[in-house]
Structures are given as C-alpha cells and as structure tokens.
UniProtKB/TrEMBL annotation:
CDD domains: crotonase-like (cd06558). It comes from Cottoperca gobio (Frogmouth). Its main location: other. The gene is ehhadh. Pathway: Lipid metabolism; fatty acid beta-oxidation. The lineage of its organism: Eukaryota, Metazoa, Chordata, Craniata, Vertebrata. This is Peroxisomal bifunctional enzyme. Monomer. GO terms for cellular component: peroxisome.
Length: 719
C-alpha cells in the first residue's frame, strides 16, 4: 500500500506502507502508481515526496513474490512515469534504499538521505541484476567503475559515501521527510530537464574495453561459477556503450535468463534460510519465541590457542568485557600480543578505535568468578575439558552459562561434570573465529531453553549465522565433513590425484578443494581427531589390515603423510608442496604421486580412470546422505539449518544453495540411485547406503524441500 497526503500546502507526500521493510509488493506498486497519478493531476500540488513508513524507505522488490505468478503493475513503467513527471519528485531515504527501492529513488529527480541510511543494489546476492533500470541509471549517474563495484558486489554504502559518489543530493541528520518537503517546496516549478538520469550520457571512460575485460576477468574468478555477477558486468557494459532504450532491452534480456535460473532460486533460498535458522526449536518443544535469553555483559574465554584468541576478539568487538585466561605464561603473553594485533587491524579496517581495554588477561581461572558466560576453548581433549568444567563449576557465580567450543566432543558428558547441566551448551566457532560467520549452538539433553536462547542471541550480536543443533559426534558440520574427507581419500586409493579431486570440487564452486583445505588446516589436526576416535593405530598404517578399521573401510593415507612429517602449509609439504612454510601457493608434488602409486601397488589396488562427475557424486552425495541421517535423528531441525552451516562454515557455493537444497535440485531419486550404485560398488562403506529418510522422501514422490518437515514428522511419529 501507499498512503497519500498533501503537506505544506503544495507537496504531495507518498508513504510506502508494507512492514517490515516496505518491499515493493503488488499492492505497494499499485499504490505508488495511483498516488503518483493523483499528485500529478492535482493542480495545487507543485512537487512530490516519496518516503517509507517507520523510518525505512524501501527494501526493494518483494522477494517472496519471485517464483509466484506475479501480478500488479510492473516496476519499470512505474519508475519511468515518475522520471517523466512534470513536477519534481524527491525521494526521502531513511533506513534503507535497496534494490528496487534504490531504483525507485533513481527514477526520482532528487534524493535526500538520512545520515544513518544505507543504499545499495544487492540483486546480485539473490542471483539477479538491478533490472528496473538500475543497471542503466547508476552508471550514468556515478560513472562506470563505481557502478560496476556496487552492482557486481551488491554492497551497501552509507549515506556519506552515497553523497560522495553522487547517488544522493543531500544528507541530513534531522527529520528526512521534513528536509525533503522543504527541498521539494524550493525546487517546485524548476526545470527538470537536467534531472532525468536516463537522459544522461554515461560519463566518458578512457579505454573502456580494457576496463571491462579486466573487471570481467576478476568477476569470473571471484564468482566461482555464479552467473549473476557476470550478467551484471554485461548490463553495465550495455549502459556504457548503448543508448538508454537499447541498454534497457539488454538489461531485460539478461534478467530473463537470471530470473528463472536455478542459481537465483538457490540464492533466494539462502536468503530466507539464513533468517529461518533464527527461529530455532528443540525436539523437546523449546523454541526461540518462548525462550528468554539472559543478559550477558561480561564473558570469559578459557584457553588462548588459535580458537580462544579469535573468540576473545569476536566477543570484545561485540562490546562485551572479556577475561581471557591462559595458564601458561608464555602462551598468555603471545596471545595478548596476537589478540591486540587482531583488534588493531580490525579497527583500522573499520575506521574505528580498537577496543583493547575491554579485555583483561589472567593465568588464574579464579578471575572468571563474576562473569555471565564462559567459553572454554582449551585443547580438544575430553580429560582436559572435563577438568576445566569442574574448575569452572567451583569458581563461577551461580547461574553462569558454561559453553564449550568443542568441535566434536560430547556436550552431555561435559555437562554431567557440573552441578547445573542445564547451564551447559556448545558454542562451536569456526577458525578464524572472529572472521568466520558460522556458529553452531549445540544443545545437550539437559540444556535449558534459556541457555540456548542466550548463546543464540550472543551469536547474533557477534554477527554470526547461528544455528541450534543437537549433540552428536561432530554435530552437523563436522559429522558430514568426515564422510566427505573419507570419500576423497578413497578416490585417491582408487586412482585419483589430489589435483583431480580438488579440481572437480573447485569447479563446482568450493573456494578450495578438500586436499588444499586439509593442507591449510593441518594434516596433524586431522590425525589428532582420528587418533581421538581410536582410528589411528601406531604401526598399522602400512600393515596388511591398514585399510580396515572398526570393521569398515579406512584409508590411512592421511596418517602416512603425517608420519612423514608432512603437515601441510606449516611444514610446506602435505598433499601439495609449497615454496616456504605458510605460503598458500599449492604446487603439484611428484613425491605425492609416486607415494600414491607405491601405496596402491603395496595394497594390490589397480588405478582406474576417475572423472569429475564421480568425484562430485562420491564426495557430495555421501555428505548429503549423512545430512538426511542428521534430519532423521533430529540433530538439525530442518534442511535450512544444514544448508546455512555448509554455506557459512564450509565454503559450499551459495549459488548452489547448500547440500540439502542441491540434493533437491539434482532430484532425490537420482541422488538415491547413485548412492545405491556406489554402495553396491563399495559394500565396505556402509554410509553409502541411502538413508531411511531419503528413501521415504523418494517414495513420497520427492516433495519440494520446504515440505520435507512433514515427512520427517511422520517418520518420527512411527519410531
Ligand atoms: C522485473 C523486476 C523484478 C525484480 C527486481 C528485483 C530488484 C530487487 O529489489 S531484489 C530485492 C533487493 N533487496 C534486497 O536484497 C534486500 C533484502 N533484505 C535485506 O537485506 C535485509 O532484510 C534488510 C532489508 C537489510 C533488513 O535487515 P534486518 O533488519 O536484519 O532484518 P531481516 O531479518 O533481514 O528482515 C526482516 C524481515 O523482512 C523480510 N525481508 C527483508 N527484505 C525483504 C524483501 N525485499 N522482500 C521480502 N521480504 C523481505 C525478511 O525475510 C525478514 O522476514 P522473515 O520472515 O524473518 O524472513
């Protein structure tokens, strides 16, 4: 809807009304068309102001309408009518002007923004381009390089930057609508010839071809297979080289391809999934809207290794007072220096003062006596963590939340070491903890809804996509990752190389293949995890039974590399070789190839040709199948939770929506059939057998992903 009033005698004020973000739904578009017409036909009205209710201009097109039969007046003629008006139209931008919202403002003759407003064309993040003239008007207004930057990244700019770029005409700290009305009164009756952006020539740019070639190359590289950023460059190129009307034709043509693409569906699914995970629920019925978080002002971090340092930075940057505890003096000093460095670099990037004084350091666990929440981040060892939890229970004030950053260990076991197990939850951060956007909040069987709500709220404050998950080995992310890693190693045994496997996964869109990722995180880390699981047996790695552990197929390849001192990047040798320790440029290593050949010969394995398709199916479908087990077990509340975890924590390409969405796109029947095929070929790998839930979904006609919950509910009620 749009409300119309006449203010100050001569100004028609149009207010967009569609909470929460005044998205341009069909009724809003109809409202704009009607009210603009009314203002233009009223002889008393000399000028028009468009604003949004509740301090928000407009969040763009209504994303919920995409994929439905869209009705109502289309955006493009609506914006053209505003631009063509013979009375000045001023956009009063408060809060946000995003996507179609900014395109609407660009159709206005003037734009006035509040100093706290943010503007942008984020369509690319939804797999689209600004196709209501945004790709044609913005370059004409601010020049090609700046428009390319905004449109291909989708980034939001502040009002100050928008003013500097020339997107807005004025910024105010006061009431924006009042300022816009005053402005509208002043410009009423003035010529609008120079105010219609579509009539501007695109600012001249030296060597346009070279500029576009360079940008296209960079965009293709960073897009990792996403098509929208490439289409955005093509649309801006049309603005720079064609008259406006032809440019609009090109914009429409490019949008037609994007609009119905699987990538747009995936990206829009991710948008809503990211928001849906905030509405968490636990199998016992506890949920986000009935559970009250506790206030957290002061927190503590125990253990200042890599994870503890990152968590300390993340907490301090959120505005909390933090006590950072490390029992070893040397470690503590090193950590203090490292944390200060991280805070200073972060502050410099954001143009703010570093918050070093929010952190105090101590060697003594007694220092945490009065904190509201503790995050334990000591070495991944149950005995050590148990000891810390016992100490914390004795030291902390009643009601302190005790959180563990374990990546796989049993949260219930840790909780059982404390007198108040309801106050224990997992807060599983991902390295580097102050950078990575994912947080798994792990509830144990006795965690209280209040404890979960508090951890979820803290995660949100830290800017993390926080997902509540149940307690099992590896939770969601690492439980699925284990099978992905295993399949990759099996493929090496069967004839693949690290380069082939990584090539297939990087072509799929992962920023890094599995072996490059292992080199980065350290082969010693993986070895320690396997040792903790009782899988590494000294002297077994090269023996006859090396390839069977705990009754199942096992690949000791990672253990053998570890035994050679090849830990990855840190030793400059791993699955690849590196010029020096820490260098990130992975080069093929002939040693690894001969090692694999000798290994196969020793174990009587005959190398066969393996193609990219098989790599993807084996690695991804094994992981997806585990995702179905996780849903069946109730460890994740829905497929969105798994997908958000993979997109935000494991580099799953967002334009493919996450593993469960991908399975839906590929077709559940096909995923099941392939799993059956690979299980038949590898009967010693039980997890290749399709899960019960996958079978049930296929038997129910492969319903769309948003309805899987019903099948899961039915499955649970049968148990
Ligand atoms: C032929 C031409 C066709 C199409 C043209 C398309 C051009 C476009 O305009 S595409 C849309 C561009 N706009 C965006 O991408 C903005 C998306 N929204 C956001 O980035 C954020 O929501 C925000 C506006 C910055 C607000 O953030 P925050 O305050 O953190 O609140 P949220 O939790 O994110 O959102 C609240 C609530 O609003 C829903 N929502 C937000 N934007 C839209 C939208 N454009 N359409 C529909 N719904 C929207 C969001 O989903 C939340 O609701 P939930 O129920 O919680 O999901």
């Amino acid at each position: 809807m749009a409300q119309y009033t006449r203010v100050s005698g001569f100004v028609g004020l149009i207010t967009l009304q569609n909470p929460p973000v005044n998205a341009l739904s069909a009724p809003v578009r109809q409202g704009i068309v009607d009210t603009v017409q009314r203002a233009l036909s009223d002889p008393e009205v000399k000028s028009v102001v468009i604003c949004g209710q509740n301090g928000i201009f407009c969040g763009g097109a209504d994303i919920k309408e995409f994929g439905t039969d869209m009705f109502g007046p289309p955006l493009i003629p609506m914006i053209h009518a505003i631009e063509a008006a013979n009375k000045p139209v001023v956009a009063a931008i408060e809060g946000i002007a995003l996507g179609g919202g900014l395109e609407l403002a660009l159709g206005c003759h003037y734009r006035i923004a509040h100093s706290k407003a943010r503007l942008g064309l984020p369509e690319v993040t939804l797999g689209l381009l600004p196709a209501a003239g945004g790709s044609q008007r913005l370059p004409r207004l601010i020049g090609v390089p700046a428009a390319l930057n905004l449109i291909t990244t989708g980034r939001h700019v502040t009002a100050a930057e928008a003013l500097q770029l020339g997107i807005v005409d004025q910024v105010t700290d006061h009431n924006t609508v009042d300022a816009a009305v005053k402005f509208a009164l002043r410009v009423g009756g003035q010529s609008l010839d120079a105010r219609r952006i579509s009539t501007y020539p695109c600012p001249q740019q030296p060597d346009l071809d070279a500029l576009f070639e360079d940008v296209m190359q960079k965009v293709r590289q960073s897009a990792r297979g996403a098509i929208a950023p490439v289409a955005c460059v093509q649309a801006v190129r049309a603005a720079a080289t064609l008259p406006y009307t032809q440019g609009m034709e090109r914009e429409k043509e490019l949008m037609a391809t994007l609009f119905t693409s699987g990538q747009a569906r995936a990206l829009q699914y991710c948008f809503f999934a990211q928001r849906a995970v905030g509405r968490w629920k636990m199998p016992n019925g506890a949920r986000w809207d009935t559970s009250k978080p506790r206030p957290v002002h002061k927190a503590a971090v125990i253990g200042l290794g890599t994870m503890g340092r990152g968590i300390t930075v993340a907490l301090a940057q959120t505005g909390l007072s933090v006590i950072a505890v490390e029992s070893q003096e040397k470690q503590l000093m090193e950590a203090k220096q490292a944390v200060s460095g991280m805070l200073e670099r972060g502050a410099k990037r954001r143009g703010v003062a570093p918050v070093l004084d929010r952190i105090s350091y101590s060697q003594d666990i007694q220092a945490v006596a009065d904190v509201d929440l503790v995050i334990e981040a000591v070495f991944e060892d149950m005995a050590l963590k148990t000891k810390v939890f016992r100490q914390l229970s004795a030291v902390c004030k009643p009601g302190t939340l005790l959180c563990t950053n374990t990546s796989a260990l049993d949260v219930d076991q840790l909780a059982s070491e404390t007198p108040n197990p309801e106050l224990v939850v997992g807060m599983h951060f991902f390295a580097p903890a102050h950078v990575m956007k994912l947080l798994e909040v792990v509830y144990g069987s006795r965690s209280s809804p209040e404890a979960v709500a508090t951890a979820m709220q803290l995660g949100k404050k830290m800017g993390k996509a926080s997902v509540a998950v149940g307690n099992c080995r590896g939770f969601v992310g690492n439980r699925m990752l284990k099978l992905y890693l295993e399949q990759a190693s099996f493929l090496l045994e069967e004839g693949a190389t690290p380069e082939l496997v990584d090539g297939a996964l990087e072509e799929f869109g992962f920023p890094m293949g599995v072996f490059r990722m292992s080199d980065l995180s350290g082969l010693d880390v993986g070895w320690r995890i396997r040792k903790g699981e009782g899988l590494v047996e000294p002297g077994m790695a090269s023996g006859q039974s090396a390839r069977i552990r705990q009754g199942r197929r096992y690949s000791p390849l990672g253990d053998l590399l570890y035994e050679q001192g090849r830990f990855g990047l840190k030793t400059s040798r791993g699955w690849y070789q590196y010029d020096k320790p820490g260098s990130r440029v992975a080069r093929s290593d002939p040693w690894v190839h001969s090692f694999l050949e000798e290994y196969r010969a020793r174990h009587g394995l005959v190398a066969r040709n393996i193609d990219h398709q098989e790599v993807l199916e084996r690695c991804l479908y094994a992981m997806i199948n585990e995702g179905f087990h996780i849903l069946e077990d109730g460890i994740a509340a829905g497929p969105e939770d798994i997908d958000v975890i993979y997109v935000f924590g494991f580099g799953w390409p967002r334009h493919r929506g996450g593993p469960m969405f991908y399975a839906d796109m590929v077709g559940l029947a096909k995923v099941m059939e392939k799993l059956e095929h690979y299980h038949q070929a590898h009967p010693d790998v039980p997890y290749l057998q399709p899960s019960n839930l996958l079978r049930k979904l296929v038997a129910s006609g492969s319903p769309p992903i948003h309805t899987w919950g019903e099948v899961i509910k039915k499955l649970h009620s049968q148990l």
